[in-house]
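User: For my dataset I need records formatted as: sequence, then structure tokens, nothing else. Please produce one.
Assistant:
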Amino acid sequence: MEYTVEADWLQQNLPAKNIRVIDCRFNLANPDDGKKQYESGHIPGSLYFDLENDLSGPVQEHGGRHPLPDVELFTSKLAMAGIGNDTTVIAYDNGEGAFAGRLWWLLNYIGHENVYILNGGIKAWLENAGPVTTEIPSYDLSKFVFKVNSDMAATYEEVYTLVHSKNDSTVLIDSREHRRYIGEVEPIDKKKGHIPGAINKVWTDGLENGRFKQPEQQKARFHDLEPRKQYIVYCGSGITAIPNYLAMKSAGFKNVLLYPGSFSDWISYDDNKVDNIK
């Protein structure tokens, strides 16, 4: 898959000066876990980017539980990590693909395509006898010039218009587990169900043992979808929809967008309806 690298590749290329590895491990149920895991042992040379402090902006009335960060502030953090426009960035998590995927998506969103996800996460690294360290590195300040690719994201207004129109050329895809989609359970958000008109493609179906499935397997997952249509993927807060975004791209879909605010943004507007299937 063109969005990932394997552990053996990273071991061979880790000494390169233009490689920067970012640890993105995170636990939505316990936000401190990721940093603690990093401090207890990480890939040599890697820095830690926290989902909520580094890869998201402050939570407000609207925008969802993990709003996109301020672009200028985010690029200043990249510069402090020694990441410039010519740096190859490798992101890893525990194999979920979602937290590393957040960094992948954000970097592409601000015009940096030279970024990859470590397939299988740190588990694959350890299985490949990769070393770990507790040493926290520092890097010289770099310079990062951003150029926002707004065509990667769907705004709330675009989703609202889609829901209230008869446009069948764009399809909403809910990436959450099926029980949340149908409104059977909702462990996080204040309303149950899904955005009206959305179909369900569970994000975890695109991975196997913490690794992204091959393009042909991803194509099989989406065999019932018309490739020429536009697709907007969402989840609870714009994080776990990203593996679906990557999977659809891998399967050959050209017109795929992420709704960053996702369901938690949609229901922040009290008048918005949700659908339930029981």
